[in-house]
TrEMBL record, chain A:
Its EC number is 1.4.4.2. The glycine cleavage system is composed of four proteins: P, T, L and H. In this organism, the P 'protein' is a heterodimer of two subunits. GO terms for molecular function: glycine dehydrogenase (decarboxylating) activity. SUPFAM superfamilies: PLP-dependent transferases. It catalyses: N(6)-[(R)-lipoyl]-L-lysyl-[glycine-cleavage complex H protein] + glycine + H(+) = N(6)-[(R)-S(8)-aminomethyldihydrolipoyl]-L-lysyl-[glycine-cleavage complex H protein] + CO2. NCBIfam families: PRK04366.1. It comes from Thermosipho ferrireducens. It is an enzyme of class 1 (oxidoreductase). The lineage of its organism: Bacteria, Thermotogati, Thermotogota, Thermotogae, Thermotogales. It comes from the Bacteria. Its cofactor is pyridoxal 5'-phosphate. This is Probable glycine dehydrogenase (decarboxylating) subunit 2. InterPro entries: Aminotrans_V_dom (IPR000192), GcvPB (IPR023012), GDC-P_C (IPR049316), GDC_P (IPR020581), PyrdxlP-dep_Trfase (IPR015424), PyrdxlP-dep_Trfase_major (IPR015421), PyrdxlP-dep_Trfase_small (IPR015422).
TrEMBL record, chain B:
The lineage of its organism: Bacteria, Thermotogati, Thermotogota, Thermotogae, Thermotogales. One of its GO terms (molecular function) is glycine dehydrogenase (decarboxylating) activity. Its EC number is 1.4.4.2. The glycine cleavage system catalyzes the degradation of glycine. The P protein binds the alpha-amino group of glycine through its pyridoxal phosphate cofactor; CO(2) is released and the remaining methylamine moiety is then transferred to the lipoamide cofactor of the H protein. It comes from Thermosipho ferrireducens. NCBIfam families: PRK00451.1 (NF001696). Pfam families: GDC-P (PF02347). It catalyses: N(6)-[(R)-lipoyl]-L-lysyl-[glycine-cleavage complex H protein] + glycine + H(+) = N(6)-[(R)-S(8)-aminomethyldihydrolipoyl]-L-lysyl-[glycine-cleavage complex H protein] + CO2. Keywords: Oxidoreductase. The keyword Ubl conjugation does not apply. Residues 2-438 form the Glycine cleavage system P-protein N-terminal domain. The glycine cleavage system is composed of four proteins: P, T, L and H. In this organism, the P 'protein' is a heterodimer of two subunits. This is Probable glycine dehydrogenase (decarboxylating) subunit 1. Belongs to the GcvP family. N-terminal subunit subfamily.
Amino acid sequence: MTIFELSKEHRKGYKLPHYNIETQEINIPGHLLRKEKPKIPEVTEIDVVRHYTNLATKNYAVDVGFYPLGSCTMKYNPKINEDVSNFEGFTMIHPHQPQETVQGALKLMFELKEMLCEITGMDEMTLQPSAGAHGELTGILITRAYHLSRGDHKRKKAIVPDSAHGTNPASAAMAGYDVIEIKSGPDGRIDLKALEEALDDEVAVLMLTNPNTLGLFEKDILKIAEMVHNAGALLYYDGANLNALLGRTRPGDMGFDIVHLNLHKTFSTPHGMGGPGSGPVGVKKFLSEFLPVPILTKDSKNNYKLDYSRKNSIGTMRSYYGNFNVMVRAYAYIKSMGKDGLKQVGEMAVLNANYLRKKIEKIMPIAYPDVCMHEFVATCEQLTKETGVKALDIAKRLLDYGFHAPTMYFPLIVHEDFMIEPTETESKDTLDKFAEVLETIFKEAREKSELVKNAPYTTPVKRLDDVTASRKPIFRFKFGEG
Amino acid sequence: MHRYIPHTEEEIKEMLEEIGVDSIEKLYINVPKTINEYNLPDGKDEFTIRRELLKLSKENVTFEPENVFAGAGIYYHYIPTVVNHLANDQKFVTAYTPYQAEVSQGTLQALFEYQTMMCELTGMEVANSSMYDGATALAEAILTAVRVNRKEKILLSRAINPEYKQVSKTYCSSQNIKIEEIGWEKSGQINIETLKEKIDQNTSAVVVGYPNFFGIIEDLQKIREAIPEKVLLIVVAEPVALSILEAPGNLGADIVVGEGQSLGITPNFGGPGIGFFTTREKYVRKMPGRIIGETKDIDGKKGYVMILQTREQHIRRGKATSNICSNHALMALVNAIYMSIMGPEGLKEVAMRSYNSAHYLAKKLEEKGYKLVFSAPFFNEFLFHVDENYAEKWENMINKGILGPLPVEKIFPDLSNMALGCTTEVNTKESIEKLLTHL
């Protein structure tokens, strides 16, 4: 049932505060006054409460169970972070208040920035971008501003490996670059020869994820950085997979010039069904003049300030100062974990991934069998050939057993694959149970494949037809048609 | 082990054994060790974190909502208690992008209903399931218009929120798109004669506020009549105003975007809010962002899925219509819950009161000798002339717990000695009188 079908004219769920201001004349011309009321539902408070509470129960979430979505780092979101981010001193401040009246907020942002610089090995950072892809666009615009500031106008290419996140090429294209894709080598890592061939004086940047989306560490990273820099290009770090490296190494130490982070991945802020996220961008000192304004600074008297005075700034990436409430959560998380806790995060994420990899390789082959970082990619191509059961079918069957499915069909270079990321907050028991269930499903696929092909059965709806949904799209509720 | 991590010593040993290595160190065989530990403090307990963050939050000055008379893009409206209760349900909060539709029907249906409500409010045919904020929504609307008619000149009202203008310029900077600003007449509305003169073969779109940054209600009908059909009309709307103003879709708008913060979201120091993006069905394949559509399952039961993903970065990669991936879905949920609880009548009452209080305040200011800057009809914000010492008065008011009308010079450096006043349904007669005593 939709909320529109619960609606009855003149039903009310609100009562506004007492109001005693005399009625003023309305001087808006008639043609600019609304004639028909919008068909927004008319319901009572209990209708609203039941509707959304019932909708919530139709969601799978980290708080419901295991969510091994590769590349998305679905770790537990600590509840203290939710509480502190809801303090009125954080939620009820206006972005145009004088800076002296928001010193607590600015101090928090400044300290967060400093901690993130320490974690990434970068010199300066902006907290403005609202998501990872927004951070990518910021980073690529910085790249562009840097080359142009040196009068280097011919760099029109951005190199993106075929194992990169889909947003990398999209962001590079948005910044006006031609995207050059390079293929991975047989070991699932960047092919240095292919890179050598692609690097010329028209290349502006190499966008790299390390560990890459196969969960493998680019072990030639120092060499790669040298090659990229020798060609006069910059090295960009997609921070979606930083979780694995916490406490061990830093993008800045590996030779990266620009890095974006995903606070909603590595730093445990919830993803909220699609956002809000937060995608801070850090840079080495020589690029700091290009960061979007404002930049957080502190004077000798410990006054925190928003500095707009960077004349080579790329501009601003969004209104005001970014997703402040998400930053509060990340700040609380880093303070809770501390240096030791963060190191444990990296170690246990890597331990969990390798343990699960070992369990799963008995069921489905690992695409690139090697020690992995925080995630790995397994393929059921063989099973598909034998039984016709696809990765998609197995994913749907996993839902019946109470697990969220891993990422499927990504990266594009592996067929019928699962990208599995267990994260550090899952226990050995959960991983054992997951492997057991996967084994059961493989058995089902071989013995009664139809059962798996038609899954799921126990979910709020059964297998949905998304092909027709896109071919004959219905974008909104059609009133009067039920 | 840290409290968020479940591993016992014994389990770690068993796991290493299964992997076939004798230490965790061996798992990092490919990774250079560049640090031993971060230069960060040790982890803290929950009690301490709460105390420290509470202390930090108290280092910010907050205001009773009835004492806030500043808006400029972020508004203090009444938020019914149910909104936060429901939106904080962790089954919404801790879910990811709905990649597995069968176990994400809560999210998907809520977003589908949100899209429907935004279409109703704006008079448009399609809405996406959110952008980061009003500013990025406008920037992407401009990029969409350029994709539609492949022309590169944008005529943008100078009376658009400067934050939105700056962001649009940043987004367009690498794409050869030229943004030209059109000033206002004495009335505060866009100068239609200038607009007509500036339109040429290369013009892709005209961008106006509704109401504009100074609260002035632009005459969309006149603007639509003044521009050729092929030039897109992009409207930056304040959603609360749309329950009393004619829907932009009915007045010829092609894309309607804006900031949804005023629909049930706290100010949050400016973020997160939510950008909304609505347009006509014929442009749907050119628009950015995720769209949720209705479909059926194999039993014929109604359900919801993400649709038209072929436009998106997963498949089109370097040719995608936009790179937006994580959006502001949770805030779209907040908007949907807020609109559900308020209904069309509640929204209208909020808009009417906001309007009424602002006009009452303007009248009282005029009685005190202050002059309004513009003559055209305004919604709940208006610009008025102030003395040279206003900035000082403004800070004094802050010390008294009042966030007074905003000195606008901070935002529009060439507009000196003017302030932007704003009210919503929560300002009281008493708070307005208190404000007046400080002016």
